[in-house]
Amino acid sequence: MGLPIVLAAISTFVGISSAKKQHDASAASAKAAEEAGILQARQYASEMFLMKSQAIAKSNQRIEEMNRAESQNIAAFSAMGRDDRSVDAFLKRNRELAGQDIANIATASVLEEAKYRTQASMAYVYGQNAAAGIRAQGSINLLSNISSIAKSLPPLFATSPITSTQAITNKMTSDNTF
C-alpha cells in the first residue's frame, strides 16, 4: 500500500511541476510579446522624428533655392536694366510659389506624423493585447492541467470528503478490521 501512495505523490508533484513550468513559459512569452510591441512602437516614433527632420531639411533647402533664384533673377534683371513693377511681380510670384511648396511640405509632414503616431499606438496596444491573451491562455492551461491532475488522483488523495471517507471505509472493510 505504501508504494502506490509514494508513486501517486511523485506523479502529482511531477504533474504540478510540469504545469507550473508551462505556465512560466507562457508568462515569458507574454513578456516577450509585450516588449516586442513596445520596441515596434519606439521604432515608429523614431521614424516619425526622422521624417520630421527630413521635412525641416526639405523646407530649408526650398528656402535656399528660392533665395538663390531670387538673387540670380535680380542680377539678370539688373543686367538688362529692368527695374519696374513687372520685375517686382515676378519676384513676388516666385516667393508665393516657394511659400506654397513649404506649406505643402509642412502639410505632408503633419500627415506623416499622424500616420507614425497611429502606427506606434497600434503596435503598443497590439503588444499589450497579445501579452494579455498569452497570459490568459497560460492561466487557462494551468487550471486545466491542475484539474486533470486532481481528477487522476487515487481515491485516497481525492479532495471530496465523501470520496475520501468511502476510500477509507472500503479499505477497512476489505481488510476486515471492523
Account of the protein in words:
- This protein has helices spanning 2-79, 85-152, 161-174.
- The chain has 178 residues and is mainly alpha-helical.
- The chain has one domain (2-171).
- Helix 1 runs antiparallel to helix 2 (85-152).
- The longest helix is centred in the first third of the chain and has 78 residues, at 2-79.
- The chain is rod-shaped and about 130 Å long.
- The mean pLDDT is 85.
Mean pLDDT comes to 85
Task: Estimate what percentage of residues fall within beta strands.
Answer: under 5%
Shape: rod-shaped
| Number of individual domains | 1
Task: Return Rg in Å.
Answer: 38 Å
**Total of DSSP H or I helical runs spanning 4+ residues:** 3
Q: In whole angstroms, how far apart are the ends? A: 19 Å
Which sequence of SSEs, written as H and E, runs from N to C? HHH
Query: How can the largest sheet be summarized?
Result: none
Fraction of residues in H or I helices: over 70%
Class inferred from helices and paired strands: mainly alpha
What is the number of E strands?
0
Runs in which pLDDT lies below 50 for 5 or more consecutive residues are none
